[in-house]
Amino acid sequence: MNFKEILTNWYSVNKRELPWRKTKNPYYIWLSEIILQQTQIKQGLPYYEAFVTNFPTIFDLANASEEEVLKLWQGLGYYSRARNLHFTAKYIVNELNGIFPNTYKELLKLKGIGDYTASAIASICFNEPTAVVDGNVYRFLSRHYGIETPINTTEGFKTFKALATELIDTNNPADFNQAIMEFGATQCKPKNPECTRCPFNSSCEALKNDTISKLPVKLKKTKVSKKHFNFLVCISSDKKTVFNKRTGKGIWKNLYQFPLVETKSSLSVDDFKTHPLVKDFFNGQRYDFTLYNETEIIHKLSHQHLHTKFWIIEVNTLPEEGIYITELHNYPTPVLISNFLNDFNFPV
DNA sequence: AATCCGGGGCG
DNA sequence: CGCCCAGGATT
Prior knowledge:
The protein is an alpha+beta fold.
C-alpha cells in the first residue's frame, strides 16, 4: 500500500463522529473551521453547536448584531475570528447573494480565511485537491520524512505545503485532508505518540532515528511581557456601575470591561488613593474604596501576563453613564472579567 | 519576516 | 511550568 492508501484506510477505521462530518454545506464547514483554528475539538464543539442552533443559516448570522456574535463566542479567545466571521457572513449575503465561493482562490479572498481554511473548505465541500497544512500536518510529515526545517518560517510553510500537495489523494481530497489531520491529532500526537500501533512505524524516519521528541522543529517565540491592570468597579447608590466597550486595536476589541487604569508596576492602596488617572476619573467627587483581591490575579495570554487588581469603589453618583449591575452578565467580556463577575458578590 | 491575538489542557 | 492546539491579519 502507498502512503495515501495506508492513511485513508486508517481514517476509515479510526475517524471520530463529529457533527461537521455529516455535512458538506460550506456554511457549516466554514463555521467549524473558524471555531477550530488554534482550538482543540473538545473546547470548540459546544461553541459549534451553539452557533448552529442560534444561526442555522448564513442569513441568520448576517442578520445578527456583532454583539450577539461576540457574546456567543465569549470564552473561546482570538476574538478577531468572531468579528471576521460576522463580517464575511454579511459580505456573502449582501454582495454574493448568499452563495458561498466554491474555489480555493475565491475563498482565500474572504476576510478571516487564510491558506489553511481556504484549502479545507475547497477540498471538503468542492473536492478541489488543495492540501491543508496545520499543526497536525506539520508534526506528522516532519516526523515521517525526518524534515528539520522550522515550521514557523516561510520556507517551512512552503516545504510542507509542497509535500502535502504531492501526497494528496486527488480522487478524494476531502477525506485525505481530514485523514491527515485526524492522524496527527489522535495518533501522531505531540506527546506520547502511539508508535507501537502506528501503520507508518516501518517507514517513519523519526522513529528510526529516535527524533520523535525533537520534531517538528519550531523557532523560539518571543518572551511574554508583564502588564499591570487596575479595574475600577464602581457601585453607585442606585446600584449602577460603569461598564464600557473596549475600542481601538488592541486585545479584546469590542468586548466589555470596567474602566481600566494600566500602570507600570503594581499599585498599592496608597498609590491608588493618589493616582492622577483615578482622581481624574472621579472628577473631584469623594469615594470610598476597597481592594477586592489582596494578591494580584495573573491572567495569562500567549504573550502577556496581566497582573490584575479589582478596586471596589462606592460613589453617590457615577462619574459617567452606566448600566445596572443586574445587566452585567448580558455583555460579552473577556474571561478575566467574567470570572470576577462570578466570584464577586455585588451588594444588593 | 516578525509580531500580535485567548484560552484551555496536558505532562 | 512550558508547550501545543483544524491560523490569520497586521506591520
